Amino acid sequence: QVQLVESGGGLVQAGESLRLSCAASGRTFSGYAMAWFRQVPGKEREFVAAINWASATYYADSVRGRFTISRDNAKNMVYLQMNSLKNEDTAVYYCAGSNVRYYDTSPSRYDFWGQGTQVTVSS
């Protein structure tokens, strides 16, 4: 059974940093794209960042320059380093895994999801 488990969320002040982790089990994702999405109540799930099988990365405009996605294939882990956090970054953050090599910004292209971790940024 494939599982993705996020950790590292919490409550921080605006301008501070957090590092989210996503631990995968049940299969290796080293040859496939992984991504982070986020969602606030009443809104659709929003693309944040993705990394493909060769570790090329892509970011939403709203986080580019502040967030960094990375992966450790030996540990079957994906990370999201979030710096200079803003109030509008408050959301539940989800890790997503795919069955394809190249990333996509659409949630429908990802087959595996974690349960989410809450990130709250206060001013």
Alpha-carbon distance between the two ends: 40 Å
SS-based structural class?
A: mainly beta
The DSSP helix count reads 0
Rg, rounded, reads 13 Å
The amount of helix comes to under 10%
Low-confidence stretches: none
Which H/E pattern describes the elements?
EEEEEEEEEEE
Number of strands: 11
Question: What are the defining features of this structure?
Answer:
four-stranded antiparallel sheet; 123 residues; mainly beta; single chain; seven-stranded mixed sheet
Task: Write a brief structural summary.
By secondary structure, the chain is mostly beta strands. The protein is built from no helices and 11 strands.
Task: Describe the fold and architecture.
By secondary structure, the protein is mostly beta strands. Helix content is 0%, strand content 48%. The chain is built from no helices and 11 strands. The chain has strands at residues 3-7, 10-13, 18-25, 34-39, 46-51, 57-59, 67-72, 77-82, 91-97, 112-113, 117-122. The radius of gyration is 13 Å and the shape is globular.
Task: Itemize the secondary structure elements and their pairings.
Blueprint: E1 3-7, E2 10-13, E3 18-25, E4 34-39, E5 46-51, E6 57-59, E7 67-72, E8 77-82, E9 91-97, E10 112-113, E11 117-122
Parallel strand pairs: 2-11
Antiparallel strand pairs: 1-3, 3-8, 4-5, 4-9, 5-6, 7-8, 9-10, 9-11
